[in-house]
Amino acid sequence: MITLQQLKFKYPNTAFGLTIDQLTLDAGLTAIVGQNGAGKTTLIKLLTGLLTPQTGQIQLAGHSLAELTPAQRLRQIGITFQDPDDQLFNSTVESEVAWGLKQLGTDTETITATVDRVLLEVGLQDRREQNPYDLSLSERKLLVIATVLAIDPAIYLFDEPMVALDWQSRQRVMAIFHRLAEAGRQVIVITHDMDLVAAGFDSVTVLRAGEVVFTGTPTALFQDAALVQRAQLMLPRLMQITAALGDSGVYLDVADYARQHEA
Ligand SMILES: Nc1ncnc2c1ncn2[C@@H]1O[C@H](COP(=O)(O)OP(=O)(O)OP(=O)(O)O)[C@@H](O)[C@H]1O
């Protein structure tokens, strides 16, 4: 669980500021949504300690983020950036995945087994000798996911992980998120994809102009038409269709619609 209290952050020389009086992000799958520039990436950079708030407290599982050593942070929290090229710097896929484990002093045998396992899980098992920059964008996005899976922190932060992925890879990544949540990890995903939020997440946090304007279930969010509009979000595509047909129900996906319309 993550808690933020009385948090204020401002970039130097810009008008943008993030202000959060109180926010609790519970275990499970959480989506962070909001229009461009709302502060989503800034928030997750604060959660990793890549940015430091001017005031306020961030606690990860009861421990102050500011007091964790770099190795403790690496074990506690992992992040993938929107652009994988911001975090790839090794000369092979294999060494990229092994890098974090080496920093933690993991033995060679465990590193080899872990690299094999996570490359298989993201579907890059045949690419281990390649230079990461010879991979396609979608493969590089899968590779950065593998680098975090290798360390297996308590908290995973993914910034737009699905962008550029085809349908099969999206299914694969969603299955990874569910596996992690079932294994007790906290998974926080920034996305603009409301179909994904509706169908796949336990909770959703909405940011608007540097403030949290909602935290709750996807059902509660999509019930609140005024909030959806104020935060400039889209409804899930299924709900756009049903709303256009005069049905004001909340439907998270096709299966949910069918369930609600069973005789
Ligand atoms: N390093 C920086 N220095 C100054 N301003 C920044 C910096 N990074 C982001 N900003 C500004 O902070 C604001 C919030 O940016 P942020 O990237 O957190 O938004 P976001 O919700 O993730 O947007 P998007 O959906 O476009 O990724 C924006 O106005 C952005 O221009």
Automatic annotation (TrEMBL):
Keywords per UniProt: ATP-binding, Cell membrane, Membrane, Nucleotide-binding, Translocase, Transport
GO MF terms held by the record: ATP binding; ATP hydrolysis activity; ATPase-coupled transmembrane transporter activity
Superkingdom per UniProt: Bacteria
Matching InterPro entries: AAA+_ATPase (IPR003593), ABC_transporter-like_ATP-bd (IPR003439), ABC_transpr_CbiO/EcfA_su (IPR015856), ECF_ABC_transporter_ATP-bd (IPR050095), P-loop_NTPase (IPR027417)
Matches recorded under PROSITE patterns: ABC_TRANSPORTER_2
Gene Ontology cellular-component annotations: ATP-binding cassette (ABC) transporter complex
All residue ranges annotated as the ABC transporter domain in the record: 2-234
Coiled coil spans: none
Entry annotated with the keyword Cell membrane: yes
PANTHER family: HEAVY METAL TRANSPORTER
Family: Belongs to the ABC transporter superfamily.
Protein name: Cobalt transport ATP-binding protein CbiO
Organism of derivation: Secundilactobacillus similis DSM 23365 = JCM 2765
